[in-house]
Inverse folding.
């Protein structure tokens, strides 16, 4: 069985055992079974707990040997001293995929943790068994309403495959859900980032791979796999533990070696992996790849409500490796006709003065401006800087976004929006599934810059 | 009359004339009078419009000469060709402060704009008259419910004095209101950033100065003033128009010269001005200075819910010029007692394992951790990384924040928060007026880094 096939048991389990299932329920009980029932997972679930007959109406088994079938996946959440014993039971029963949630193995500061880890390693060696963790939230799959996390997972059926070394990603960020499918490799005693990459490489539900990595043990294999997969699907990476003190913290978090940051940087970039710097940049890039098309170049046309913010847009584009498009004479001519004679029409295009003389609603002016920029062969993408000064603004702009995506499917259109109704307009526009809305110029330009970089990499091949 | 005194007429007008007051009202009418009535401005308002007897129930005058008193401030919003005539009328009537809203003067691409500007310059020369603009939203003062902006201004009685070269700041950013008091210098034909700095230097309602600048004409005076004022109050700057193409856009926006970015950078830094890079960084820093105390050093203690995010916190701190605090043995000892024996207690401090063994609610564990870090003389500030996994979380954390501010008023405590209830928890915690909550590690660390930089500058003096 190949790696991708083996990983299916973790990512798409049809039956699971929860070993160490909790009897306490409700807030603060971190009950995996309760969570699963809440998501609506349709596979078979077998809680194992010697002190209960049923939990939440689900029949409970006192030990692994009693389970009525060989489950796809065993989720182990027990005090660390008990884990090796249970691993042995699972192996003996022929269970070939185990997620060990418990902490305090390779990540521990004591000898006992390392000893217990070695015991587990010996138990599974040569038995065709894959172990995820320890110290992990496990896996999640929005398409199956499945998550092994003891904290409720925020899932959405996005084409995102997330690989991470902390379960925090499963909890979500405000409105943002990144799963898709997710795997927290934790201490990565066996299943590691490279294995997960091989799964997502094959997985048809995954279009974008999000990779949070602190360090890897087998650097050579990781690089081989990551370079191969990056050629097929965009990989957005957040490599953490950059400095010496952060690297020390990595060691105590997952027992991994962070490695020299410059080495990572060169390796990732030359493999075509998109490296991001912060969690917002990471999430922004992932969503940009989900929604925006590949770009043919780096030349951005900017429309703005205010000259001052247009300039900030230019600053941001240049900071993020984009270029300010030089508009074709035809575009300048057309836009000049809509503007007062004293305005030097150019890029960024200030739509306010034109609106003031025409008396058109601003979104109509915006629409005309975006249409001209998209039609210009010297423009590869459009950044719209817009004020959300009234709540229903997005109804007018939605049509524009949809039309742009139809007429120029190869040119992304993104927004920087300010003003009191930011949240409403953002939600309305992003609901088209065709654009992304940002609250900072840098975030907008960086997301676009990442798309441009991957597009360039993909084109060169 | 000194500059600060002259500027009072713009910032704290007791009586105003709106010259070119609009008769149309309701959405999209950009009616200054309507806005003022909405804010509840208590000063006298005289609309001037020869085609109306009253607007919104307010008596209207047909020309400046008919006004019943010499107003503090005339707000001029007329087609540009009519502006010099009105300026003459104002000067003749002894009005000594004028805000010219109209665009198309120094900012225009044609000779006519420059000619009209020169005419205005000649009319006011030697008459003791100050002109704000043209091409400006004018001034706003939340403490008086006053704004001359034709777009509704988002104001809050913050101790922030904003100087900008685009009215966009008056519109606000999502939940964020930055005024305070604000002045958009526009083309800055007369009143410029240096003048505004002199006003805020004296103004007792202003504790933090926010300075958005594209360029200045009198660089020498600007630098003299900015270095003097920075010694008294923190100045947070957003200098835009960094690159060549952005500088060209500046020229066409406000007619200003952007200047070489490296020169600006050195000048601002050596003056003790805090330079920010993007609009979010700018807003974050302003609010941080409003709320957080000065720091005694750069050493940060981090508490975290998850090792993985703790490492991101370390990365961000180092990127933003902060240091990871080395905890005192007493602190490590105390915290070890709360954690499982296998955990290497250090900084960042992972509170999750300790919570798992103690069974304490997480915020109780967090409270103990923050208290220990604050008590450590080797810690100058605390960054708390926390999951907003339930909505009412902030009630429990609020007390912690308030207690921290009481017991250690010299040590800022800030939060990076993730999870589904981010917005609620952010609002709840920030309502204490003692902390700031961020959605990215970089934003949290950069805001703290700015406070540290200014604290260092202020201490050295």
């Amino acid at each position: 069985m190949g790696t991708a096939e083996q990983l299916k048991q973790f990512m798409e389990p049809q039956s699971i055992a929860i070993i160490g299932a909790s009897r306490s329920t409700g807030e603060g009980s971190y009950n995996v079974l309760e969570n699963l029932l809440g998501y609506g997972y349709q596979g078979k679930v077998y809680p194992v707990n010697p002190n209960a007959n049923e939990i939440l109406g689900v029949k409970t088994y006192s030990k692994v040997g009693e389970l009525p079938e060989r489950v796809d996946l065993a989720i182990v959440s027990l005090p660390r001293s008990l884990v090796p014993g249970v691993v042995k039971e699972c192996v003996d029963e022929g269970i070939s995929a185990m997620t060990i949630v418990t902490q305090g193995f390779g990540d521990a500061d004591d000898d006992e943790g390392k000893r217990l880890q070695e015991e587990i390693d010996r138990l599974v060696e040569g038995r065709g068994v894959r172990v995820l963790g320890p110290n992990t939230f496990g896996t999640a799959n929005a398409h199956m309403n499945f998550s092994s996390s003891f904290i409720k997972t925020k899932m959405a059926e996005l084409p995102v495959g997330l690989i991470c070394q902390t379960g925090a990603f499963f909890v979500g960020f405000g409105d943002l859900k990144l799963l898709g499918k997710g795997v927290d490799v934790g201490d990565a005693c066996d299943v590691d980032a490279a294995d997960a990459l091989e799964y997502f490489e094959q997985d048809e539900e995954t279009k974008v791979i999000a990779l949070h990595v602190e360090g890897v043990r087998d650097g050579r294999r990781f690089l081989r796999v990551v370079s191969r997969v990056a050629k097929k699907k965009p990989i957005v990476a957040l490599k953490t533990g950059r400095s010496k003190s952060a690297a020390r913290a990595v060691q105590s978090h997952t027992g991994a070696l962070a490695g020299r940051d410059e080495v990572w940087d060169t390796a990732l970039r030359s493999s075509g992996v998109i490296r991001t710097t912060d969690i917002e940049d990471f999430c922004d890039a992932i969503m940009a790849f989900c929604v925006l098309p590949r770009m043919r170049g780096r030349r951005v046309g900017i429309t703005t409500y205010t000259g001052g913010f247009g300039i900030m847009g230019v600053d941001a584009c240049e900071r993020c490796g984009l270029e300010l498009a030089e508009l074709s004479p035809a575009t300048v001519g057309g836009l000049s006709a809509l503007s007062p004679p004293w305005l030097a029409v150019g890029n960024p295009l200030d739509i306010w003065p034109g609106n003031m003389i025409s008396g058109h609603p601003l979104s109509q002016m915006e629409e005309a401006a975006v249409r001209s920029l998209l039609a210009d062969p010297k423009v590869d993408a459009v950044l719209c800087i817009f004020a959300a000064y009234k709540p229903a603004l997005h109804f007018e702009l939605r049509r524009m976004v949809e039309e742009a995506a139809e007429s120029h499917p190869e040119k992304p259109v993104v927004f920087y929006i300010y003003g009191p109704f930011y949240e409403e307009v953002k939600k309305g526009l992003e609901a088209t599934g065709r654009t992304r809305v940002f609250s900072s110029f840098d975030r907008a330009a960086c997301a676009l810059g990442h798309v441009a970089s991957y597009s360039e990499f993909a084109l060169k091949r």
